[in-house]
Automatic annotation (TrEMBL):
GO cellular component, one term: chloroplast stroma
GO molecular function terms noted in the UniProt entry: 4-hydroxy-tetrahydrodipicolinate reductase
Alphabetical GO biological process terms: diaminopimelate biosynthetic process; lysine biosynthetic process via diaminopimelate
Record's protein name: Dihydrodipicolinate reductase C-terminal domain-containing protein
PANTHER family: 4-HYDROXY-TETRAHYDRODIPICOLINATE REDUCTASE 1, CHLOROPLASTIC-RELATED, DIHYDRODIPICOLINATE REDUCTASE
Top-rank taxon, per record: Eukaryota
Organism lineage string: Eukaryota, Viridiplantae, Streptophyta, Embryophyta, Tracheophyta
The organism of origin for this protein: Hibiscus trionum
Limits of the Dihydrodipicolinate reductase C-terminal domain: 12-85
Length: 91
């Protein structure tokens, strides 16, 4: 956690990270690099989101999921987006 690097400068976001210029106002580019304590194993994963529409669509999917739960009188509990995805209500 002590090596988190945030790049907020738009020029660097384009040149170093590869954010398309048209998505500078709304994007989420993250690269995670994990290394074992003895440095013999490393693992990386990355996700890049361009724009904000994915978040809006996910919100709609979650609302539809919850409406279905209310209508079916499902047990009251706390749900998360994994529950939404598992139910396959995604468009």
């Amino acid at each position: 956690m002590d090596q988190i690097q945030m790049i907020r400068d738009p020029k660097q976001q384009i040149e170093m990270v590869g954010v398309p210029e048209e998505h500078l106002a709304g994007h989420a580019f993250h690269l995670f690099h994990l290394t074992s304590p003895d440095q013999t194993v490393s693992f990386e994963f990355q996700h890049n989101v361009c724009g904000r529409s994915m978040y809006a669509e996910g919100t709609v999917d979650a609302v539809l999921f919850l409406a279905k739960k209310v209508k079916s009188k499902a047990d009251k509990r706390i749900y998360n987006m994994i529950d939404v995805l598992r139910e396959a209500n995604v468009r």
